[in-house]
Amino acid sequence: TLSEKIPDGLVDDCERLADQAREYFQPLFLHRDYQSRNIMISNNKVHIIDFQAARLGPPGYDIASLLIDPYVALSDDEQAQLFTSYLEEMMRFPQVDITRIKQSYPYLAVHRNLQIAGAFAFLSGSKGKSFFKPYILPSLLMLKRRLAAELFDCVPILRKTISQAIVTYRSDF
Questions:
Q1: Structurally, what CATH architecture does the domain formed by 10-172 represent?
Q2: Who wins on pLDDT, 103 or 26?
């Protein structure tokens, strides 16, 4: 882990993020780890693997997982183009509320980014799996960029914690 002590106010900030995402909740079956290493192509067929985290959740979470994929560094423009394509495809399903997906996406993207950074820090630090170490800094930097949006002014402690984690990571590793 990057820090042992939880900063005062951080739990409150995280609860605010969860509340924001919950406002747009529309249950849909999700993979929840929909990223490049779980998409296999064999004999010109696409296969999705690693379903142990699957459950009901907001429809924007899987596209956030794919677009924020730490193993494939998509630019912000590429992410925006792919998100637009995703929304166009989702319009074919009348039961899916596109407005909710658009409104919830920034929150879901931050949630996914937090999950990625936390998982990589845990796997490399606590579990000694050095493979994940190079992905920590890019995930933290992406998270910092996302949190810079005015929408996230309500989570100042989280912003500060991520900035400090970046400094700590750069000095310790």
A1: Alpha-Beta Complex (3.90)
A2: 103
